[in-house]
């Protein structure tokens, strides 16, 4: 029984012969508690992307602050401040109606760990806690349910001004990503995978 995949994911995994890879990645790469490298990434991140949805209103938002503005508060819990904004409350309004969220931490250096999180969010409006965080209007507490890496394959190195070396070439061929060469992945790649070899 998968915790990460629903019927829509499964239908496509089966259509394109990807279920073996998906199940193996879930078993080997998904975590239920933060590892030290996850905590280090989150503690130094100056931004992340937040996905929310409610009543058909899907939103993806950039959330930024000084490094350390997102704090890991438990083995699978974190919180971040909501700062002054544009008064639309797209993300927070979605959270009020549907607390399921996604978070994506990506350092655009072309090589560092990237992290996806899924969880359930709640708004916290505790005056004493807010007073201790400069600029915080409220806090968002997240009970994290799924922790898993985001593939680096197409992430550009923005600081170095370099595109990902894995982008398709003019002839459509691509470099094989490191993960497809792992001994537990290579034999189970989909039948039509160009890197199956």
Concise overview:
With about 200 residues, the protein is of the alpha+beta class. About 20% of the residues lie in helices and about 25% in strands.
The CATH first-level class of the largest domain comes to Mainly Beta
Q: What is the overall silhouette?
A: globular
Share in helix: 10-25%
* Computed structural class: alpha+beta
**Name given to the CATH homologous superfamily of the largest domain:** Electron Transport, Fmn-binding Protein, Chain A
The percentage of residues in β strands lies in 25-35%
- What's the tally of helices? 5
How many strands appear in the DSSP assignment?
7
User: So, CATH architecture of the largest domain?
Assistant: Roll
Q: C-alpha Rg, in Å?
A: 19 Å
Give the biggest sheet: 7 strands, antiparallel
Low-pLDDT windows of residues:
none
Number of domains: 2
Verbal overview:
The protein is α+β, with helices and mostly antiparallel strands and 197 residues long. It folds into two domains: 1-30, no CATH class; 32-165, Roll (Pnp Oxidase, Chain A), CATH 2.30.110.10. The protein is built from five helices and seven strands. It has a seven-stranded antiparallel β-sheet with strand order 2-1-5-6-7-4-3, covered by helices on one side. A hairpin with a 2-residue loop joins strand 1 and strand 2. The two termini are 30 Å apart. The mean pLDDT is 94.
What does the secondary structure layout of this molecule look like, with pairings?
Elements: H1 7-15, H2 19-29, H3 36-44, E1 47-54, E2 57-64, E3 71-74, E4 77-82, H4 90-97, E5 100-105, E6 115-124, H5 127-131, E7 138-149
Antiparallel strand pairs: 1-2, 1-5, 3-4, 4-7, 5-6, 6-7
Pfam family, one: PNPOx_N
Organism: Paeniroseomonas aquatica
InterPro entries: Pyridox_Oxase_N, Split_barrel_FMN-bd
């Amino acid at each position: 029984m998968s915790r990460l995949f629903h019927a829509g994911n499964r239908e496509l995994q089966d259509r394109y012969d990807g279920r073996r890879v998906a199940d193996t990645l879930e078993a080997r790469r998904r975590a239920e508690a933060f590892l030290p490298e996850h905590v280090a990434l989150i503690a130094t991140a100056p931004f992340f992307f937040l996905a929310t949805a409610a009543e058909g209103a899907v939103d993806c938002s950039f959330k930024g602050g000084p490094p350390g503005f997102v704090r890991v508060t438990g083995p699978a819990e974190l919180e971040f401040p909501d700062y002054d904004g544009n008064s639309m409350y797209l993300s927070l309004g979605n959270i009020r109606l549907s607390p399921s969220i996604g978070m994506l931490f990506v350092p655009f250096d072309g090589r560092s760990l990237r992290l996806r999180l899924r969880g359930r969010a709640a708004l916290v409006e505790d005056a004493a806690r807010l007073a201790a965080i400069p600029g915080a209007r409220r806090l968002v507490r997240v009970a994290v349910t799924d922790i898993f890496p985001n593939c680096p394959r197409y992430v550009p190195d923005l600081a170095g001004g370099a595109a990902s070396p894995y982008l398709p070439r003019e002839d459509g061929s691509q470099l094989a990503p490191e993960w497809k060469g792992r001994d537990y992945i290579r034999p189970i790649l989909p039948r039509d995978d160009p890197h199956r070899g």
